[in-house]
Amino acid sequence: MNFEGKVVLVTGSGRGIGAAIARAFAAEGASVAINYLKNSEAADEVVTACCTEVGDALAFKADVTVGEAVDDLVSNVLENFGKIDVLVNNAFKPYTFDQENRKMFWELDWSDYQAQIDGALMSAHGVCKAVLPGMRRRSNGAIINVATDLVARPSIPYHEYTTAKSALIGFSRNLAVELGPLGIRVNCVAPGLVYPTEGTVNTKEMIKDTISMQTPLGRIARPEDVAGPVLFLASSWSEFMTGQTLYVDGGLVMN
Amino acid sequence: MIERGGYLPGLSVDEVEWQALYFDGVGSKFEIQVPLLSEDQVRTLTTSVRNAARTKLKAMPVAQIIEIIDCAINRLLDRNDPYRKKCEEILPLVTGYDAEMIRLGLTGYLKTFRKPELQKFLVEDFANPTILDDFQPVPKGGYARAYGPDLLTHIWSGNVPGLPIWSMISGLLVKAGNIGKVPSAEPLFAGWFAEAIAAVAPEISDCFAVVWWKGGNTRLESILLEGSEAVLAYGGNDALKSMRDRTPITTRFLAYGHKVGFGMISKDALDIQKGKLNAHKAAYDVMRYDQHGCYSPHVFFVERGGKVSPREFAEYLAHELDVFESKYPRRSLSDGDLNNIAAWRNEEEIKSFDDPAGGLIGSAGKSWSVAFVDHTERLSPSSLNRTIKVVAVDALAEVVPLIAPYKTTLQTVGISASPDQLFNLSNSLALSGVTRVSALGCMTKPEAGWHHDGRFNLLDLVTLTEIEQSAIDGADTLATFVD
């Protein structure tokens, strides 16, 4: 996979899975736009790491749940890199995966759901719309939305998080149908539990062990594990795939 | 493998000098031997073909000629037939067109020359086709019979494989002796068709010939032109003029020059479903023979106000062309062709600086180019090889003045519009020089019996000999039964 000459925007790539995805694209020669919300230091580290690879990178601060900020983000990326070939919607509202202290359904308000829906779906909707004119002009583009394997197997009912990610998959499938005739592909990657990330840094060993034992490949995912399928879906290796969801969880979910 | 072009009745292989033409085959150069005829050999052929046609073809009922052509066409449609196999194997190597495009294109084309279609062909031009066989009563009184020329010369061009047989079949139907000159770009198919006819009907195997010489050999060409009663010539205007100037004034010269086609899509045809479907059909017309047909589109005029905007139509069209590239790849292009496309793209890009909504769609590395123009712009020829422009208009009626400068070179328009609009537009288009209106997706597939460039395929070739009523009345006075 060679992404030389390609420009990739990864939302929420200042750390965690997003950062791993950004670095993997840079390693294959891409110019990567690192979008982050607050932690500029972490984002700069990702930029530095990317620039030691074949490709290059710049950091762009923006809250992707705010319409104007999204438009500014995309115009800044276009100003710096000239185009966006690949969009990875990875950002989501911060969420702590804490099996022991999660909120039960009757403890959740609609606002909890709304926050996750805004974080996962509204942000993806906004960024997709903003990058679309350029992709349509080139009759080419790949959008990859990061979901979760909990959609297929909610072993732990993180209601608001998983519901929002389920909506993201439905959103992606519809978008795939709409954009296919314009040469643009839309797919999802659905990781299992990924460690370490900010959301899982406090996940108990016992839970990680339990999941590992149920996983055919015998461990939980690392951030780098998610990058491979994302790159695949962004590359011409998958040029005849759209509307799909690739599960990256060592075989825990088989669809 | 060496293939020989041409069909030379009465001349053995050893009597003829041969020249090799090379084509880029798969993995190696592909060689075709073409005949280098002497002036005497061309003269001999013109005499022998003319005499054979006079004695054999002219005595044959047209229904029998149709049977013979039908038989030969059915051989070429049969995928197990050796001639058909040669077409499928060799024509892609020679022309560079995708093998599947040629296979499907040949079938679609050849099937329009089977017996029922040939009968249509005849009645398009002759209310009573037996007028080619015998004197027939005519409405004004008296009798008439149609005679084809003793020798009809064809000067073919090489843009679309198989095209020569259109005029050769026309010549056979009017019982003309036929000599066709094939172009260097595709010197085989006409000869194979001639061989297939000869195999089906050996008795008329010397009534036609297929020759070759290098383009611009006016010496040999003139011998042929001077020996013919009618000439059908295809090519650019300069070449046609040169030929016409060397054709005797008493010889009928029928010229088919380069043509420009375009498409029109009404807002009624631009809801979400029909818009995409029409983009698919439009892309199909662009893809077929990489726009080298006289009927190929160069611009699509798209009406504003539909659910799918002209810009969106252009984007759908671009993707459809991208998809067609996987199914029917564009032929490999010469550096000259590639430079022309680059220049065309460059020009469109520069023009788009003043047209923010317009510009090129897709990147330069693709096998197709789509330019979108968001303001009124006149028709202009594309750079061929899947380069196409989409021009937005407020109303399709606006297109009429935009095509006016091309009146003498217009031919086919592919239209998707309501019945009222279709007929109203067709009248304005006809007055502007358009001679054929088809559906989108059918631009490159004319109906059987199509009047090429608005002319009569068969009627233009014949002369009528009339027996006037006075002669019949006079004869009656001399009849043996006169009381």
Topology readout:
The complex is a heterodimer of chains A (255) and B (483).
Chain A: E1 7-10, H1 16-27, E2 31-36, H2 40-51, E3 56-61, H3 67-81, E4 86-89, H4 110-138, E5 141-146, H5 159-179, E6 184-191, H6 205-214, H7 223-234, E7 245-248
Parallel strand pairs in A: 1-2, 1-4, 2-3, 4-5, 5-6, 6-7
Helix pairs in contact in A: 1-2, 1-7, 3-4, 4-5
Chain B: E1 2-4, E2 17-24, E3 29-36, H1 39-57, H2 62-77, H3 82-95, H4 99-110, H5 115-125, E4 136-137, E5 143-147, E6 151-155, H6 164-173, E7 177-182, H7 189-200, E8 208-212, H8 218-226, E9 230-234, H9 237-245, E10 252-256, E11 260-265, H10 272-287, E12 297-303, H11 310-327, H12 335-351, E13 359-361, E14 369-373, E15 387-393, H13 399-403, E16 410-416, H14 419-431, E17 436-439, E18 463-467, H15 469-476
Parallel strand pairs in B: 1-3, 6-7, 6-9, 7-8, 9-10, 11-12, 11-16, 12-15, 14-15, 16-17
Antiparallel strand pairs in B: 2-3, 4-5, 5-18, 13-14
Helix pairs in contact in B: 1-8, 2-7, 10-11
Can you offer a commentary on this structure?
The complex is a heterodimer of chains A (255) and B (483). Chain A has helices at 16-27, 40-51, 67-81, 110-138, 159-179, 205-214, 223-234; strands at residues 7-10, 31-36, 56-61, 86-89, 141-146, 184-191, 245-248. Chain A has 255 residues and is of the alpha/beta class. In chain A, β1, α1 and β2 (31-36) form a beta-alpha-beta unit. In chain A, α1 crosses α7. Chain A is globular. By secondary structure, chain B is α/β, with parallel strands linked by helices. The longest helix of chain B is centred in the first third of the chain and has 19 residues, at 39-57. Chain B has 2 domains: 2-258 and 451-467, Aldehyde Dehydrogenase, Chain A, domain 1 (3-Layer(aba) Sandwich); 260-439, Aldehyde Dehydrogenase, Chain A, domain 2 (3-Layer(aba) Sandwich), CATH 3.40.309. Chain B is globular, with a radius of gyration of 24 Å. Helix content of chain B is 39%, strand content 20%. Chains A and B meet through α4 of A and α11 and β13 of B.
